[in-house]
Amino acid sequence: MAEQIQVTRSLFDDVMVPNYAPAKMIPVKGQGSRVWDQDGREYVDFAGGIAVSSLGHCHPAMVSALTEQAGKLWHLSNVLTNEPALRLASKLVQQTFAEKVFFANSGAEANEAAFKLARRWALEVHGEHKHEIISFSKSFHGRTFFTVTVGGQASYSDGFGPKPGAVLHAEFNNLDSVKALMSERTCAVVLEPIQGEGGIIPATQEFLDGVRALCDQHQALLVMDEVQTGVGRTGSLYAYMNYQVEPDILTTAKSLGGGFPIGAMLTTTEIAKHLKVGTHGTTYGGNPLACAVAEAVIDTINTPEVLQGVLAKEQLFRQRLAAINEQYQVFSEVRGKGMLLGAVLNEKYQGRARDFFLAAADHGLMALVAGVNVVRFAPSLVITEQDIQDGMDRFEQAVAQVVNAA
């Protein structure tokens, strides 16, 4: 008989690599936008597993899809294809600009594929001189060495030896800074329509229009990282649709699987042909279990009711945050769109986002930060009005706690 292991928070320190510092409580059950820990304490979930749990916890459509597929087929390999992967790819193609899909297991892997494809396309179409990738300060594209180097936060890529070369960083929402870096050597410009980890900073329409025009002018690809903004989070299936600016390559993950690991890179037939047989691959990408769950997620989210509901819920969040701020004067603005919002701390509370995050947990609310000055909310897209109100009541108590302790 297998040994029964007593699971406590201290066990993490004994057996896990110390690159994380998780909370003291351990969640054991979730339902909708509520989570319970080992002691039975209930939390309202405004974090969504960092913008992942797009349908909350244990949504019946996801549970059904997973259990049905689990009884059929778990894994093959990329020597074979499978029905859930082909159905999901077909739906992504039908609903977006794209014509071809590559499946991976995470946003970082989807971005790794996108950056490799951009480089391969440039090499084969234009030659070896065209290899520079322009990204942006404060951007985030994953934790592989290539994606973390393209990301605009040096603290994540420093300390691991020589970095991949030919990666340049412009200033987000500053078109002149992009112009200054672009040349015939530029193979791709990579951006998030709303910078997530960088502080929930939406691109302006003028900026995105300008970057698209610069890419066309310099024969470079526009790569949009929609890992955090994709699959309904901004009230459209993908955020590029809000701007009516089409990318050449798009990456998606997080909400796509609703909690089951999956990522995807979407592109056109003309660009995709440069990833010939053998040029790129993944053992688990396109896994039948992941694709079956993601298909259920897409089917559930990509409806007028849910997408319009996201924008209605945004207004409720903004109203409650405005009322809290009227009383406690802690935020300078609320940025973002849909169910990806950032409450920006004013000058008096600079650098104290983590204090609000910890206070929220004290009052039974799971929230997030985006840097040291932004409290981030990325809940389920189908969170109920009651859960929003209850969560905001708890957040108000947390704000009061921080303010009164100052």
UniProtKB/TrEMBL annotation:
Highest taxon of the lineage: Bacteria
Name of the protein: Acetylornithine aminotransferase
Reactions mediated catalytically: N(2)-acetyl-L-ornithine + 2-oxoglutarate = N-acetyl-L-glutamate 5-semialdehyde + L-glutamate
Cofactor(s) listed: pyridoxal 5'-phosphate
GO biological process: L-arginine biosynthetic process
UniProt-annotated location(s): Cytoplasm
GO cellular component: cytoplasm
Keyword Transferase: yes
Any one GO MF annotation of this record: pyridoxal phosphate binding
Gene3D superfamilies: Aspartate Aminotransferase, domain 1 (3.90.1150.10), Type I PLP-dependent aspartate aminotransferase-like (Major domain) (3.40.640.10)
InterPro entries, alphabetized: Ac/SucOrn_transaminase_bac, AcOrn/SuccOrn_fam, Aminotrans_3, Aminotrans_3_PPA_site, Class-III_PLP-dep_AT, PyrdxlP-dep_Trfase, PyrdxlP-dep_Trfase_major, PyrdxlP-dep_Trfase_small
Binding-site positions, pyridoxal 5'-phosphate: 107-108, 140, 225-228, 283
Organism annotation: Alkalimonas amylolytica
HAMAP family reported in the protein's UniProt record: ArgD_aminotrans_3
PANTHER family the record matches: AMINOTRANSFERASE CLASS III, SUCCINYLORNITHINE TRANSAMINASE
Entry keywords, A to Z: Amino-acid biosynthesis, Aminotransferase, Arginine biosynthesis, Cytoplasm, Pyridoxal phosphate, Transferase
Protein family: Belongs to the class-III pyridoxal-phosphate-dependent aminotransferase family. ArgD subfamily.
Binding of N(2)-acetyl-L-ornithine, residues: 143, 282
Cofactor note: Binds 1 pyridoxal phosphate per subunit.
